[in-house]
Amino acid sequence: MKTIADATTLPDPAGAYDGLVFLSTWSTGTPERQRATVDAIAEAWASRPWPHEGLLSYTVYAGADGSTVAHRSQWRDEEAYQDFFARGRDERNAEIDEAVPGIERLGLHKTRLRDGVARAAGDDRAAGAIVITEGDRDKVPEAAPGLISVHVHETTDGARVIDYAEWESGEGLPEEGRYRLAYGFRPER
């Protein structure tokens, strides 16, 4: 199956599936290394066939801080991820690490979508910024000016809640945890 790369379309964070969402962050150190990392990811993914039928989508975001790169992948189930991890992940990561040595991997969170504030029917605003932050376990985020949607994920071990919010722009939002779409990857269907 061919891999489709897209630098303009965000994934549907509330997509109709009952699988896992994996969220991770890498630190690259500088804006130049961040750009080189994003480009290396694009090359490693777009130059190969889609790696696994259980991977539904993979999206990469560049941090507003000029250093971080966030990753969001949607998986059918844990078994699909473990199979990919055993057979296809290392080759891609090795290519990325060769292009940009010294990337620091800050962690991977395996989550399930819990709840949130969905995009209103007919709302066709484009998200100019994505904000990924630790959430409050006991509070569902409320609508706010410029907020398009927010999706609350809980880690599979129940230890953390992570909010994934789509905003019209990054204006007035803190730099920490704020991202813009770099690339989205999906299988050709």
What is the structure about, briefly put?
This protein is α+β, with helices and mostly antiparallel strands. The protein contains three helices and nine strands; from the N terminus they run E-E-H-E-E-H-H-E-E-E-E-E. It has helices at 31-46, 78-87, 89-99; strands at residues 3-6, 20-27, 55-63, 68-75, 104-117, 129-134, 147-155, 161-167, 178-187.
Q: How far is the first residue's CA from the last residue's CA?
A: 8 Å
Series of H and E elements: EEHEEHHEEEEE
Helix content: 10-25%
Mean pLDDT: 89
Written account of the structure:
With 189 residues, the chain is an alpha+beta fold. The protein has 3 helices and 9 strands. It has helices at 31-46, 78-87, 89-99; strands at residues 3-6, 20-27, 55-63, 68-75, 104-117, 129-134, 147-155, 161-167, 178-187. Strands 2-4-3-9-6-8-7-5 form an 8-stranded antiparallel beta barrel. It starts with a strand and ends with a strand.
List the helices and strands and how they pair.
Elements: E1 3-6, E2 20-27, H1 31-46, E3 55-63, E4 68-75, H2 78-87, H3 89-99, E5 104-117, E6 129-134, E7 147-155, E8 161-167, E9 178-187
Helix pairs in contact: 1-3
